[in-house]
Write a structure and sequence with these properties.
- The chain is an alpha+beta fold.
- It has 2 domains: about 5-100, no CATH class; about 105-160.
- About 70% of the residues lie in helices and about 15% in strands.
- Strands 1-2-3 form a 3-stranded antiparallel sheet, with helices on one face.
- A hairpin with a 2-residue loop joins strand 2 (about 30-40) and strand 3.
- Helix 3 (about 105-140) packs antiparallel against helix 4.
- The radius of gyration is 45 Å and the shape is rod-shaped.
- The chain starts with a helix and ends with a helix.
- About 5% of the residues are buried.
Length: about 160
């Protein structure tokens, strides 16, 4: 893992930037020189000879280092927050699993009640049919017939009488 504080300390201790690369030399020999700072008419330089690519890399990294370290710190803070959130969510999920495991299995009870409802419906239908037949046989019609059928069906449903 990158030690951000050490890199920041090295950055602060180094010659202030921005750094840039200039080519120097004569017709026979060209050098990549990293210019670090100018003060009192002097230039602090690093001569990398003909290694232009390394000179460009060093200058670019030195200039970009503060922003890169800031970004790395932000990403590490976000990662820590995400890991904390993930841990909290995992704890909540485990608590829900434990809660669900503690619930009784009500499927058997539900199926039993559905069966009882079907039996009650069958009884109501049977009593309604029987009441209608009885009402017709006795000559009831109209409103009285409907009331008597409803009362008979209700008694069958409540009392559980089979017939």
């Amino acid at each position: 893992m990158t030690d951000i504080e050490s890199l920041r300390a090295l950055h602060e201790a180094a010659t202030p930037g921005p750094w840039f690369v200039e080519m120097a030399g004569d017709f026979d020999h060209e050098c990549a020189i990293i210019e670090c700072a100018r003060w009192n008419g002097y230039i602090n330089t690093i001569d990398l000879g003909s290694d232009h690519d390394t000179a460009n890399l060093i200058a670019a990294m030195r200039n970009a280092l503060p922003d890169l370290l800031d970004g790395l710190e932000r990403l590490r803070a976000e990662k820590a927050q995400l890991l904390q959130s993930r841990a909290e969510i995992a704890d909540e999920a485990q608590a829900l699993r434990s809660w669900l495991d503690g619930l009784p299995d009500v499927r058997a009870e539900r199926d039993d009640l559905a069966s009882k409802v079907q039996r009650v419906e069958a009884l109501v239908d049977g009593w309604a049919t029987a009441a209608t037949k009885a009402a017709n046989a006795l000559g009831f019609s109209g409103r009285h017939h409907r009331d008597w059928s409803r009362i008979s069906a209700l008694r069958a449903a409540i009392g559980g009488d089979d017939e």
